[in-house]
Design brief:
The protein contains ten helices and nine strands. The chain is of the alpha/beta class and 290 residues long. The chain has two domains: 178 residues, Rossmann fold (3-Layer(aba) Sandwich); 98 residues. It starts with 10 loop residues before the first helix and ends with a strand.
């Protein structure tokens, strides 16, 4: 096991390296394209002697930038990358968008990864573990996908090594991932759709266009285009310059208004980012982390 000397002072990093290197079987990392899973793959591929495979789901719910990022880094670091279709849109429960939609999404994803080992003959399946970038900060959020992971014995190396999001960003920077270490959280596009509104490809494409357009006018950060019963709301960090500069706000409002009018949608305005506001539980209260 090779340990990066620049990281030797971080005990969490040392624990993570040991946890990963001790896993003596094929490891398939569910690679979303976000900083958590990218950093996990970067460390695992370097410290492990057994095969480590990056599994990336290509979907309408996954921004193209995330897929391109996975491909670029796989080429740069010689990762074995397998792209799959999680087929989540074939699941009527997922499409209906209940509050636990993420459970059905992750169930589809993990099942496809598991099936990728079997092929035509289940007897030839390799001894394989699926790993995700779940970290200790995630455990306090409303994450139905964790139930799907637990049901399938999906491995969580960060949790075992007691690594949180802040430490992941430090590790990413020292591992040479550069500006990606500051990459904002990037949950799937379906997370922007309010509970009870059916998930469809057209809405997801619209969400992506709005978020990309607004990002070009302002600084990066937690930018969310929410599809709600009332219409389209765009959320940004409270300190975003759109809230502070009238000219920038005017340009952004005209841009989003036009995008909405092009698709006969109602733009309800900008508001500060509120974590989990698309997930409505029972009495309409929101929960979650996206």
């Amino acid at each position: 096991m090779t340990v990066n000397p620049l990281m030797s002072e971080i005990k969490e990093y040392q624990r993570l390296c040991k946890v990963l290197s001790d896993k003596q079987e094929v490891l398939k990392v569910a690679l979303s394209g976000g900083i958590d899973s990218l950093t996990l793959m970067k460390v695992a591929a370097r410290v492990r002697t057994e095969p480590t495979i990056a599994m990336h789901a290509v979907s309408a719910a996954v921004p193209l930038e995330a897929t391109l990022r996975c491909r670029e880094l796989a080429g740069k670091y010689n990762w074995q990358l397998e792209e799959i279709d999680a087929n989540e849109f074939d699941n009527a429960h997922y499409v209906a968008n209940p509050v636990n939609r993420c459970y059905y999404c992750k169930s589809s994803l993990f099942d496809r990864i598991i099936e990728s080992d079997y092929g035509d003959n289940i007897a030839t399946a390799r001894n394989t573990t699926i790993a995700t970038g779940t970290n200790t900060d995630d455990l306090g959020d409303y994450r139905p996908g964790l139930i799907a992971a637990r049901e399938r014995d999906v491995w969580q190396p960060y949790v075992i090594a007691q690594v949180n999001k802040k430490t992941i960003r430090r590790i990413a920077k020292q591992e040479g991932l550069g500006d990606l270490s500051e990459l904002p959280a990037q949950p799937c596009l379906s997370s922007r759709v309010e509970t009870g509104i059916a998930i469809n490809v057209k809405d997801l494409g619209f969400i992506h266009r709005v978020e990309k357009s607004v990002t070009q006018l302002t600084v990066a950060g937690d930018i969310r285009c929410r599809i709600t019963q009332a219409g389209v709301t765009v959320q940004l960090p409270a300190d975003n310059k759109i809230f502070q500069h009238l000219q920038t706000r005017s340009l952004a409002e005209k841009l989003v208004t036009q995008l909405c009018e092009d698709e006969d949608r109602c733009f309800t305005g900008f508001e500060p980012y509120k974590m989990g506001s698309a997930f409505l539980i029972g009495n309409g209260n929101s929960s979650g982390d996206v």
